[in-house]
Amino acid sequence: MLKFTAKALVCAISLSLAGLAQAEAPIIIKFAHVVADNTPKGQGALIFKKLAEERLPGKVKVEVYPNSSLFGDGKEMEALLLGDVQLLAPSLAKFEQYAKPMQIFDLPFLFDDLAAADRFQSSPQGKALLTSMEDKNITGLAYWHNGTKQMSANKPLREPSDARGLKFRVQASAVLEEQFKAVRANPRKMSFAEVYQGLQTGVVNGTENTWSNYQSQKVHEVQKYMTESDHGLIDYMVITNTQFWKGLPADVRSELETIMAEVTVEVNKQADELNQSAKQAIAAAGTTEIIELTPEQRGQWREAMKPVWQKFEGEIGADLIRAAEASNQR
Ligand code: LMR
User: Fold this and answer.
1) Is the CB of 210 under 6 A from ligand 1?
2) What is the mean pLDDT of the chain?
3) What domains, with CATH codes, occur in the chain?
């Protein structure tokens, strides 16, 4: 009996010590993304880590994995659902298999500028998209800006006919495929990590992206021309695994939400500046001619690409498109 009691005591003590160690272990939040640190998203992830670890010392540890170093396109969403990563910020072009209305963000020439995108994202319709994938276990925490897309190729792109027959890398988005088909080019879906090599080896000969993504991936080394077309948007939704987020202790979750809101303000403030300085760095590198479009030329691209809206109106919803268009009015 005495032997039994002593054994039970040892067992109870070691169990409670294990419990204590467990209670003290910080919650690990892995934040994976595909871009470089010196981009709007790269900076956002680092600011989030800094603030979370400062304000929740010992409770939360954030590990940031940039440049597809943990998971790249194609694998990251699956990893989030499996619980192998807790935060991602995929480009808005990468959600079509989870919620068709998300395709709205890829419609060419939808938003006049980033401020309009911002107004739509903070409207009731924009906010509703953040929670529209919870049945798939994906919760949107915030929208982060990168910026507007520019086109690139090894020949000057001034008018839609200049793109004819070229092979353009696109993100995994049916809308973006249609956008390039509309100018009789050949779109090819390719993950972000493969873009430089794809352009270098000629698997593709053109692409679209923001200045900061071009510069940080050295795309200007393999593209002779970039056209300042501002024809679409690359923004992000910061997402988490719904079950993981809801399972966090309430005080931790609420502090992380406060931090996320602050980081969002900061990312969106810095994004344009980062893109403008990346554009200057590309110009200074001297490898790539930056082409400005006349209003007439830009109008031609708009006219050529706009029919894409009609093709996706059924999947996206006409009301949502109208709401996004209305955000162009201040
Ligand atoms: C791309 O794949 O071109 C971009 O969306 C990458 C990113 O996350 O900015």
Assistant:
1) no
2) 94
3) 20-326 (3.40.190.170)
Burial of 261 (0-12, 13-18, 19+ CB in 10 A): exposed
Query: How far apart are the C-alpha atoms of 168 and 180, rounded to whole Å?
Result: 7
What is the pLDDT at residue 285? 98
3-class state of residue 130 by DSSP: helix
The pLDDT tens digits for 74-103 are 899 999 999 999 999 999 999 999 999 999
How large a percentage of the chain has pLDDT more than 90? 92
Answer yes or no: is the C-beta of 171 below 6 A from any ligand 1 atom: yes
Q: Closest ligand 1 atom to the C-alpha of 210?
A: 9
Nearest to 239 by CA among 144, 106, 124: 144
Ligand 1 atom nearest to 91, measured from its CA: 5
Ligand 1 centre and the CA of 279: distance in Å? 17
| Amino acid at site 24 | E
User: Does ligand 1 have an atom closer than 6 angstroms to the CB of 34?
Assistant: yes
Q: How confident is the model over 246-269, as a mean pLDDT? A: 98
The CA distances from residue 234 to 22, 83, 105, 112, 129, in Å, are 40, 26, 8, 13, 16
Please name the residues in contact with 138: beta carbons below 8 A apart, sequence gap of 6 or more. Answer: 77, 80, 81, 98, 239, 240, 241, 242
Q: What is the DSSP letter of 182?
A: T
Q: Is 234 in the pocket of ligand 1 (CB under 6 A)?
A: yes
Task: List, for residues 92-131, the tens digit of each pLDDT value.
Answer: 999 999 999 999 999 999 999 999 999 999 999 999 999 9
Rounded to 5 degrees, what are φ and ψ at 253?
-60, -45
207 Cβ below 6 A of ligand 1: no
Structure confidence at residue 2 (pLDDT): 46
Q: Is the per-residue pLDDT at 20 higher than 90?
A: no
- Give the position, in ligand 1's atom list, of the atom nearest the Cα of 146: 9
Residues in the chain: 330
Q: What is the mean pLDDT of residues 24-48?
A: 97
